[in-house]
Amino acid sequence: MKRLQGSLQARLSLALTLAILLVALGAGAFGFISAYRDSIRLQDDLLLQVGSLIVRLGGSLPADGAVGSYPGADHESRISVQWLPAPGQAATASAALPLPEGLHDGFQTVGMFHEDFRVYVQPLPSGRRIALAQETDVRDHIASRAAWRALIPVLILVPVLLLAIRRIMGRLFAPLASLRGQIDRRRDDQLDPLPTTGLPTEISPFVDAINRLLARVQGAMTAQRRFVADAAHELRTPLAALSLQAERLQQSELSETARERLQRLEQGLARARTLVTQLLALARVQAQDQTGATARQRLPLREVVRPVLEDLLPLAQQKDIDLGVDGSLEASVDTNAVELGLLLGNLIDNAIRYTPSGGCISLALADPAQTPPGRVRLEIVDNGPGIPASERERVFQPFLRLDPAAASGSGLGLAIVQSVAARLDIVVRLAASDEQSQVGLRVILDIPAP
Amino acid sequence: MRILLVEDDAMIGEEVRAALKDAGYAADWVQDGALALAALAQQQYDAVLLDLGLPGADGLSVLRQLRRRAATPVLILTARDGVQDRIDGLDCGADDYILKPFAMGELLARLRAVMRRKSGAATVVLDNGQLCLDLAEKTARWQGQPPVTLSAREFSLLQALMHRPGAILSRGELEERIYGWGEEVESNAVEFLIHGLRKKLDREAIKNVRGMGWMVARAGAAP
Question: In principle, which of A257, A318, A334, B71 could form an S-S bond with A448, CB 3.0–4.6 Å?
Fold first, then answer.
């Protein structure tokens, strides 16, 4: 019921059906009444004519009256003519109709055999009177037939109109449906205006209003991102100064305790540097989201991976982690080298942070048989603690770190990965390296192939 | 060697100037673009360390004006790390680009590199902080040990790696460097040469990157 109330189509159909039924009833009633009146006059004229004909013929009638009949006539339309008994005299026993007494000259309606008869009493010059009678059913039938004839076309109109409304509404709402589809397919951060061409004038102001809202949201987001980028920028300079000071401090004479504390200070500085760098990277990737699609080109995957490994190998070697490639990386991908590098860098950086010393991180192409068509599947597998299945959705949120004590990450790495993946149409999935024991993290990347 | 440091941030300026002095350079420090141009007009510098975000005249416009007169090596110091910023800087005539925050060791290494390149003299020694390769003598030296002589192929292979320390070279790329056109490539030749080099120098001198190739450590990145 709620659905019916909510549906424009149902409400329109209901209202139109009611209106049509009302009109149909009105037309039927009008047809009935006018046909009824006409047929009363017709019947009366008929009886009057037959009466005056008998008068002109000299009033000759059989003693028991006469019934107008012809082959194929139905009994309702028969006209019977019979003598009326003179006042004070009993009716003829053989008379066809048991006419009551006291009929006056002219027209009247009389009930006999549980039916109504129209009776016309015609005085003859001889002083006797004859009664002409016909059932009223005739004219009732004529009237009701006329009423039905007025009703039926309008009643047929109801289902036709309901179907037509369905079609028309479907067609009218098609632009709305396609608009809805477009909005559904949008990414969270896609805020460019919706197209208003081809929309009905009733709906385009609504879409205009949505577009104004989108523009305001976009403005607010741009301001926020600019703030993040500016803040990260402004943080860099003092951080650089602090790092340089710490570096110089290390070169001066220091006690063993001071040296130990300085080392912790430098670790803190390194963490702050990472955070600021990641914040800037995320702000930039998100800012680019608004400026449109990235230029993608056909690239050998190996050449995208190589500089990333070159950047991260020193970090892996510090932790004595074996970072490398299993099998061949001979595949072409349709992507942007800088941005895919950023994505891979963040994933491998994460793997290095969370894999214990002496661990192993491998990049490998998946079996083409398991890869979706039009994609190249690259997997990054580590033997660290992995991510529990229940947390695999959540870890993409910015600043979320499952175990803040475990590693010195910024919590932004996977948020960057997700932003870049959305831009490059890369599907990122997290799984366990070893499905049996649920150990280690396996990041599965489906990268568009050229 | 006289270096001009153009940096508006007092903390960084102070530190870099002190570090340059420690490293044996004469360093002049100015804090805005107009003063930088004035200093460049009066004095001959061997290199300029230029911050991009300057009050007065923007770093890039200082660079453009300097380039009209002189080819002094310029190393940009900046917090702007967008690819486009880097391209703009290099297009304006910068010789290298270093991103804040940076380590002083890296800044000094890059400063030496840009000055060496600009001096026009052919580099005779490649150095990544651990390993020195003398191109004239065709000898290599590992961290203070006496130099060892290399065979022609060992030298070509190590030269390829030392040309860009930290870069990974694949087997195919190394084979291209050690074999001439038309020469038949022996299988395992690369492994054989690397084994020999590690024996002569140190096991850590050349690092293997599983599935990708080999590299020598980047300067300053050694643990």
Answer: A334
Q: Is A237 on the interface with B (CB under 8 A)?
A: yes
Nearest by CB to A237, from B14, B79, B221: name it.
B79
With an 8 Å Cβ cutoff, are B101 and A363 in contact? no
> Angle at Cα A217 formed by Cα A216 and Cα A218, nearest 5°?
90
Q: Does B133 touch chain A (CB under 8 A)?
A: no
How does DSSP classify residue A137?
A: H
Instruction: Give the pTM.
Output: 0.62
Nearest C-alpha of chain B: how many angstroms from A409?
17
Residue A164 in 3-state DSSP?
helix
Contacts of A302 in chain B (CB under 8 A): 212
Alpha-carbon distance A174 to nearest alpha carbon in chain B (angstroms): 44
How are strands ordered across the β-sheet holding A322-326?
A322-326, A360-365, A375-382, A439-448, A427-434
Q: Say if the Cβ atoms of A240 and B101 lie within 8 Å.
A: yes
Contact B12 A241 (CB under 8 A): yes
Residuewise pLDDT in 10s, chain A (450 residues): 555 567 777 888 888 888 888 888 888 888 888 888 888 888 888 888 888 888 887 767 776 666 666 666 666 677 888 877 766 665 555 566 777 777 778 888 888 778 788 888 888 877 778 888 888 877 777 777 777 777 787 778 778 888 888 888 888 778 888 888 888 888 766 788 888 777 778 788 888 998 999 899 888 888 887 787 777 778 888 888 888 888 888 888 888 998 888 988 888 888 888 888 888 888 777 776 655 556 788 999 999 999 999 989 988 988 999 999 998 888 999 998 888 998 999 999 989 988 999 999 999 999 888 888 889 999 999 998 888 888 888 888 887 777 666 656 677 888 889 888 988 889 999 999 888 888 899 999 999 988
**B103, A247: Cβ pair inside 8 Å?**
yes
